[in-house]
Specification:
Elements: E1 3-6, H1 14-25, E2 30-34, E3 37-42, H2 47-57, E4 66-68, H3 75-78, H4 83-92, E5 97-102, E6 118-122, H5 127-136, E7 140-144, H6 157-164, E8 170-173, E9 183-186, E10 193-196
Parallel strand pairs: 1-8, 2-8, 4-6, 5-9
Antiparallel strand pairs: 2-3, 3-7, 4-7, 5-6, 9-10
Length: 206
Amino acid sequence: MSRYFPVHPENPQQRSLNQVVNILRDGGLIAYPTDTGYAFGAGLGNKSALDRIRKIRQLSDKHHFTLVMSQFAQVGQYVQMDNWVFRAVKAAIPGRYTFILKATRDVPKVMLHPRKKTVGVRVPEHVTALALLETLNEPIVSSTLMLPGQDTPMVDGWQIQDEIGDRLDAVLDSGDCGTEPTTVVDFTSGEAVITRRGAGDPSIFE
């Protein structure tokens, strides 16, 4: 059974954040809240944790994982952006968007779409998620916490602990999160293509 860490939504306890970060660094798989529901989270390059996510969600190897970061300044290290993409992405984050872009060599191969060599990136607008990311000081590799047969993310930490806690290493619960998944915008064709309409306003990319 996973360890359960309830924290304050406006001032999450640093001791709990440190413990969750240690679990990530030790190769663990966590669930954590974001502005678009809960997400699975793993450390950069942790193939075994990604395999666990695929198994829980019943995903193929073509699923786009997302690098979740604490600030826009980190994005350019991991994905390639033309000037117009740079401006478009910068204007929309932090926020409820995931952007699909060509990865740089700093992204471990196990994180990438196997054929396209692309990856998702996002910067959430959520106190606990950002505090966790700042404590870790590197991206968390994430996937929306939707179980097979569901079309919306799970939104209650205690429910996640109850239902799939035996398949996770930690659940970070601050009691507040969004209820819709991100809007996904794919830039890899040379233009903005909306592949999923979600919580982020898609009109700014249309």
